[in-house]
Amino acid sequence: MRALVIALLLTGSGIARAYPQFQLSKDQTCAGCHLSPAGGGPLSENGLNVAQATSQWGTAPEFLYGAVPTPGWLTLGGDLRGAGGFFDSVEKNLVAFPMQAELDANAVFGAFSVHVAAGARDPQYQNTGATLISTREHWLQWQAKPGEATGLFVRVGRFMPVFGLRFVEHPDFTRRYGGSPLYGEAYGAAVEYVDPRWEVHATGFIHDPLFRDSLERGDGAAVYAEARVAQATSLGIETKLDVTPDDRHLYTGVTAKQWLASPGILLQGEVQLVHQKVALGGTNNQLVGYLMGSYFLGDAILIDLGLEAYAPDLHVRYLDQEGLDLNVHWFTTSHLEVILTNHFQMQELGEGGLSSGYSLLQLHYRL
Length: 367
Known about the structure:
Elements: H1 2-11, H2 45-53, E1 74-88, E2 92-109, E3 112-120, H3 128-131, E4 133-143, E5 151-159, H4 173-176, E6 186-194, E7 198-206, E8 219-230, E9 233-243, E10 247-260, E11 265-278, E12 283-297, E13 301-311, E14 321-331, E15 336-347, E16 355-366
Antiparallel strand pairs: 1-2, 1-16, 2-3, 3-4, 4-5, 5-6, 6-7, 7-8, 8-9, 9-10, 10-11, 11-12, 12-13, 13-14, 14-15, 15-16
């Protein structure tokens, strides 16, 4: 039972986001395929074409295969996810659980657009009825070049502040211990500029005062900037300040991406230094890093191999954790993705620390 709870915490309720593995390999920016300047959510026309081209058997990529026509100003989407498999921690268990059931809508009115993502999520204890259904994201956007994927964007509303590589797999150390945890959405205002050569995202945010289960409990600001120093090379810097009544976290880090066209491999790395200052006194420095290599086997199969490390306190030995990820994505149609996710984790590698892991088969259906 304990392992089941841990599995739900680590791997349940995943949220579909943009695949950073597609940047540089498919397009120079996430906004090249998504309506959001930060990636994730409904696909643009180019994104629909990419979804069809990178799948095994194609099929019409539009919402519900185009069976439900929508006016040109309205884009609908959504995601369904579920997983099952083996989890090994203190106990060994077979697990199966839902991960996501969400609908997206994006309405455009000239230079303005409204985006809403709503669906089922983990309900709060003793408040199930009011929290079982929620709107994870809702924001109003203005862009200087309506209908284009570049230029100046301004957003206000509830969304995840742009920070780091933003992998889909939220158990990755740089997401779980870094500045972009699952359910880390907050109310904020963002000024973003996207260009094929560079992009910058600056967000000021406050925590959600109504939804107590949000993992973002602080107020602050985040900045992420990335430059494509060459057509196949990208470098980024990041910082985020997060202040709560109990403590203050300052995240600083760097990212790097390198596309190797000949073997079809994309290398991505991120390192963050996290400085925590406790309100009652005392400080703590943490280090978290991730390195992923992604290999594109033909058009429909993507293989990820990731190495990660986390030191929760640089002043204390034998606390660090290391992890190994192996994920295989099979894009069967433009709507259905089959994912084999494998994770092995050890505390204090080589010192006889505890180990855990899981192997899960995940189904992701994009509406």
